[in-house]
Every structure is written in structure tokens, then in C-alpha cells.
Amino acid sequence: MYDVRTTVEPAVEPIPLAEAKINLRVDHSDEDGEIGRMIRAARRHCENLAGRTFITQTKAINLDQFPTAAAGLILLPRAPAISIVSIKYYDVDGIEQTLDPADYEFDPNTKPGRLRPTLGNSWPATEERFSAVEIEWIAGYGDDPTDVPEEIRSAMKLALGDQYEQRESIVLGLNINYSKQIEILLSDQRLSEGNY
Question: CA quadruple 119, 121, 124, 125: dihedral positive or negative?
Fold first, then answer.
């Protein structure tokens, strides 16, 4: 399957620091930096469990070539996909090209998002090499924490609480024992690899 990476981190987190501190019952600022790191870790943990992107950020995948099947469908992991930033590829001469948006269709209404060549077009031939194609897109529910569904935010708060309660384990490099309630809250949001 695809190795999805984040090329632009979110500007904000689904759980703001002030809200996290209320949830953790912390009334001082001594641990603000550490709590901020825990918020990011909680988001990443829950995003991985759900197979989704929660707050607006830029994602990318690499393919060795474009699909050769008749439909040429490419499914974008980490829904919801909002828009395409670029589709770059190395042509058969090894020169990097950027695909014209008029040459492909993007469907953000499905989860995962879909790409295919426009009617009458096909994907271009690529150089025979690893990672000949790079697709970069914007994903997430929106730019504001309130855009993120409440069950996701609740799961993140549980993960944050687990991290905070077990913070000594983090310092020692031990695994966190996350609550099973997190998986239950995310179960309706989960996209399995079978979805793409």
C-alpha cells in the first residue's frame, strides 16, 4: 500500500491547548510545551487508527507508475481529500513534469478521494524507476477544531489523557497503554486499507 507522508503540518490542532488543559485538569503553564507535543501525538495516533486526516494539512504519496487499467483510478488514502496540490511525474526521458489539472478529474466526495484521467485521456507513461509519480493533496475536515467531528475530538481527548497519565513511560521510551474506548469512538470513522 501507499506510504502516506505529511508535507505541510496543520496550522492548528483539533484540540486547542486551553481545551486540553481543562480536560487534563491542569491549571498552570509549566507543562504547556509537553502538553502541546502530547496533543500532536494524540492526533497522529488517532489519525493512524482511523486512517483519516482530521485537520487541514498537506499529504503526499509516491507511485512507481500511473495505473495501467482502463479506468486508471487512483484512490487517495487519508480522507477526506479537499483538493489536489499537484501531480508530478518523471516522463520516459527522466524529466520531471507537472500534470495539467485539465488532464485529470478529482472526486472529493468519496472517501477515499479519487483521481482519474479526463474523458479521452490516459495517464502519461513514466520513466521506469521507483517513485516516478508524486501526488500531493490537501486533506482534513477543515481549518477549525470545530470542523472535526465530536467523536474524533473525544477519542483524541482520551488518547491525550492516557499520555498525560503515563507521561513517565514516554520519558523512559515505553509504550503507552491506550484505552479501548478510543478505538470504539473511531470505529465509525475508520477507513481500512481495503477501502483503497
Answer: positive
